[in-house]
Each structure stands twice: as structure tokens, then as C-alpha cells.
Design goal:
Layout: E1 2-8, E2 12-19, E3 24-31, H1 35-51, E4 58-63, H2 93-99, E5 103-107, H3 108-119, E6 128-133, E7 137-143, E8 146-147, H4 180-184, H5 186-193, H6 202-227, E9 231-235, H7 244-256, E10 271-273, H8 280-296
Parallel strand pairs: 1-4, 4-5, 6-9, 9-10
Antiparallel strand pairs: 1-2, 2-3, 6-7, 7-8
Helix pairs in contact: 1-2, 3-8, 6-7
The protein binds zinc ion.
């Protein structure tokens, strides 16, 4: 079976068709323009694939949000977004109507969690959190192998974390100021220290890394207690900060305070870097497609 995937990002869209084992047969990337133009690019990609004999049996989409995931009339529509023209845009209907194949939609971070669980750093695990720290902070989760969403998808980047005593940076989240994203996203780091972490001198970078680790650990503590993941995967550019992950693990152990006392929470393999890097999301869209194909199969 051939599966299709779309990673819908704020600056670019990536489309691919692949075999079930993940072997990519065709892949294209285009800049995100308005919804009509961009979805026309996506449609053209899959039509070319079909004409070339590699049309997918189902398509998975991992998208930026917020997006309506509930079944019903609004399913697949982008919700309130500052991205010009995209509010209310339907990601699913036009593709399903034009291609006539099942389409599964989820968030980009839930897709990345699926990708990591099938091919990456969480292979074989059923309940995992995938957190990406870039311009913002987003996280997805699988619970019992299924992507987590309900009334809406989780917005774990916006959890509250206690302010560190040596930090008076007000935070940059437009909604909450000093939530996790407001204090610890790449944009927050750049705003607090005057430049991106990678460009800081060694001494300042060490301080920035230490503070970042404390905030991320505080956020992860919340997720550990709510989602009960078997592993937490960190993606995005932040994992390249030297010493960050060991510092997060040390701080997380302190913050858990020995409760509930599972040795797994203290192991090096509990908080790890993404195994697939940038490919986690696109790979995950193929898993979504496989799920859609299975659900649509008779019997
Ligand atoms: Zn926030």
C-alpha cells in the first residue's frame, strides 16, 4: 500500500508519498502562501503521484494550529490564527473531494509523536510526549498509541511554570506572558538575552542553558504527572544547546522529588532528543495515513 503525507507548516508545506515501511517514493516542499494557492500545490503533487502510478490509498496531514479536529461540519478547519487568510481554511475537504481517499488530520506535534513512536526515539512505546522547542513550544502526546485530543488538541506549551527566582524576564506569550512558551521558547530566549542562544558568548550561553533547563524541566514535570508518558522526546533547535538535556534530566529529578518513586523517571532514556529530527512530523503523517486506511477498510 502507498501512503501520502502532508506536513502543513506556517512557512512551508511538505508533501510525500511513501511505502508503508516509510520508504519515500516522492517528496516536495513548497512555501506556505494563501490557503487556496497552497492547497492547489498539494493537490497538484498528489495528482502527479497518481498519474505516475504511485497514488496514495490514504493521506495523513499534520498541521500547524489551532485546528478543529472534532468530527462534524468544521472538521479540518484552521481556527483563529494571525496567519493572513488561513482562519477558517479547510485542509481536509478539498483534498478528500478531489482525490477520493480517506484523510486523517492531526496536529504537527501529534504527528511527530507518531513518527517517533514508529520509527524514532520512542519506538514501540504507547504513551509518549513529543515536545518541540523552536520559535514557540508545542507538544503532542500519544496515549495508548492514539494521538491525544478532545474538545481541542492539547496546548502543552502554554502550561504554567513557576518563575525562577533569578529571572525577571516578563515573558512573551501574547496570551499569558510568562507561560512555558512565554519564558522558554527560542523567541523568549532571544528576547531575554538579546540574541538567539546559538549566538551568545560561552558564559552567557551557559547561564541561558541552565535557566532554559529549569523551565523545561518544570514544564515536563507537569506533563509527567498529567499524561504519564513512558518517554519524553524533545525536538527543535534547542536540543543542540550543549549540556541542555543532561541539565533538564537533573532538574526534573529534583522537581519530581522522588514522587511517585519510579526509577524510570530518573533514567537517561526518559528525556531524550528526537531520533528523527526534522523527519518526525512527515514520518508521522504516514502513520496517520495508515490509520485512516485501516479505519476505511471494509470489515
Ligand atoms: Zn501562553
Amino acid at each position: 500500500m502507498i501512503l501520502g503525507g502532508v506536513e502543513a507548516g506556517g512557512t512551508k508545506f511538505l508533501c510525500l508519498v511513501a511505502q508503508e515501511d516509510g520508504a519515500v517514493l516522492a517528496q516536495e516542499r513548497f512555501p506556505t502562501r494563501g490557503p487556496d494557492e497552497t492547497l492547489a500545490d498539494v493537490l497538484a503533487f498528489f495528482r502527479r503521484a497518481r498519474d505516475g502510478g504511485i497514488g496514495p490509498a490514504a493521506i495523513g496531514i499534520g498541521t500547524f494550529g489551532p485546528v478543529e479536529l472534532r468530527a462534524g461540519a468544521g472538521h479540518g478547519r484552521i481556527m483563529a490564527t494571525p496567519k493572513p487568510g488561513w482562519e477558517g481554511a479547510d485542509l481536509v475537504g478539498p483534498l478528500r473531494d478531489a482525490l477520493g481517499v480517506p484523510i486523517a488530520l492531526d496536529t504537527d506535534v501529534n504527528a511527530a509523536a507518531l513518527g517517533e513512536a514508529h520509527w524514532g526515539a520512542a519506538r514501540g512505546l504507547r504513551t509518549v510526549v513529543y515536545m518541540t522547542v523552536g520559535t514557540g513550544i508545542g507538544a503532542g502526546a500519544l496515549v495508548g498509541g492514539r494521538p491525544l485530543h478532545g474538545l481541542v488538541h492539547p496546548e502543552m506549551g502554554h502550561v504554567s511554570v513557576p518563575r525562577e527566582p533569578d529571572d525577571d524576564f516578563p515573558g512573551i506569550c501574547p496570551f499569558h506572558g510568562a507561560c512555558l512558551e512565554g519564558l522558554a521558547s527560542g523567541s523568549a530566549v532571544a528576547a531575554r538575552w538579546g540574541r538567539p542562544a546559538q549566538e551568545l558568548d560561552a558564559a552567557t550561553r551557559a547561564r541561558a542553558t541552565d535557566l532554559e533547563a529549569r523551565y523545561l524541566a518544570a514544564g515536563i514535570r507537569n506533563l509527567v504527572y498529567v499524561v504519564a508518558p513512558e518517554r519524553v522526546i524533545i525536538g527543535g533547535g534547542i536540543v543542540n544547546l550543549p549540556g541542555l538535556l543532561p541539565a533538564v534530566r537533573r532538574r526534573l529529578a529534583e522537581l519530581l522529588g522522588g514522587y511517585p518513586g519510579l526509577p524510570e523517571h530518573g533514567e537517561e532514556g526518559f528525556v531524550v532528543a528526537a531520533g528523527l529530527g526534522q523527519d518526525a512530523g512527515p514520518r508521522g503523517t504516514l502513520v496517520l495515513a495508515g490509520m485512516a486506511a485501516a479505519e476505511a477498510a471494509p470489515g
